[in-house]
Amino acid sequence: MRNLRILFMGTPDFAVAILDALIKEKFTVVGVITAPDKPAGRGRKINESAVKKYALQNNLPILQPTNLKNEDFINELESLNANLQIVVAFRMLPKVVWEMPKYGTFNLHASLLPAYRGAAPINWAIINGETKTGVTTFFIDEKIDTGSIILQEEALIEDTETVGELHDKLMLLGSKLVVKTVQQIEQNKVETIKQPKIEEKSAPKIFNTTCEINWENSLNSIYNLIRGLNPYPTAWTTLINNNEEIKVKIYDVKKEFETHHYKVGTLIISKKEIKVAVQRGFLIIESLQLAGKRKMDSKSLLNGFTFYKNAILR
Questions:
Q1: pLDDT tens digits, residue range 264-312?
Q2: What does the alpha-carbon distance between residue 99 and residue 231 come to, in Å, rounded to a whole number?
Q3: Domain presence at residue 191
Q4: DSSP assigned state of 125
Q5: CATH number where 285 lies
C-alpha cells in the first residue's frame, strides 16, 4: 500500500465536490492550488474561488500562483512533498509541474474522452443533442485532454435535462470516480489505456456569440442550445417590440412540433403563454430575463409587460 500525499488543483464548485470526497475518505491532502483572488461584481469586491473557500474552512495549505512556471512557486510545490497531483477544472499545467510527483498527475474530465476535449464538455454534449456522456480520469501529458485513460463512467442525458442538472449529476459521478482512481493508485493497481483515435467532437470555450439564438435553426437545435446553456452562461436573443430592441435571456423552454405558416421568430402571446414560431413548430418559453430585470416565469412577465402585436425575436 502506497502512502499518498495529494496536491489538489481546482477552482469552481465542481472541483469542491471532488476535494470534499477526498477529505471525507481520509486521504492526505497536503495542499490546494487554486486561481488568484479577483474583483467581481458591480462593487468590484474581491472574490475567492469556491475551492479556496473550502480549503480555508478545512485548514488546507493554499497556493494561488499567477505564473505556474515561477521559480518561487515551483520551490513551494516541491516543499509540500506531494507524490500525487489531482486536477479538476483548473488550467493547463507546464511539464515541470505535472511531471513532479512520483505517482503522476491525473485529471478528471467531464466527458467520455476522447470525445469533447476542451473547456466546456458538459455544455457541448447537450447543445449537440447527445444522449450519453460521462466522466474520465486520465494521466496528464503534453497536450490538452489526451493522456492515457485510467477510468471512465457513463451517464445518460435526459431529453429535458439542462446543463445545470447534468453538471450536478457528473459532479457526483466524478467524485466517486476520483476516489476510485486514487484507491487504485494507492494499491498500485492502475491499468491505463491509450485514448482511441476517433473523429473528435470538441468542447471549445463558450463565448457570448455562441449563446445567441438563430431562429432559422431547427426546433431541436434551438431547444438543445437553450438547455445546454441553462442556467449558465444562458442563451439570448433580441426582442423587437414596437421598434424597441431588448436583449432577452431564455432559460426554461418546451418544444411543440406543429405545422404552421408563421415567420420564424414571430411571438404568439396569450394571457398565460409565450410561444415562438420556429421551423416545423413552436418553442414555449417558461422562464426568461429581460435586460435590466430579474429572471421570472412567463406568467409573471405577462402580468406587467406589454408585447405589441408585431413583436418578434431576432
A1: 999 999 988 999 999 999 999 999 999 999 999 999 999 989 999 889 9
A2: 37
A3: no
A4: H
A5: 3.10.25.10
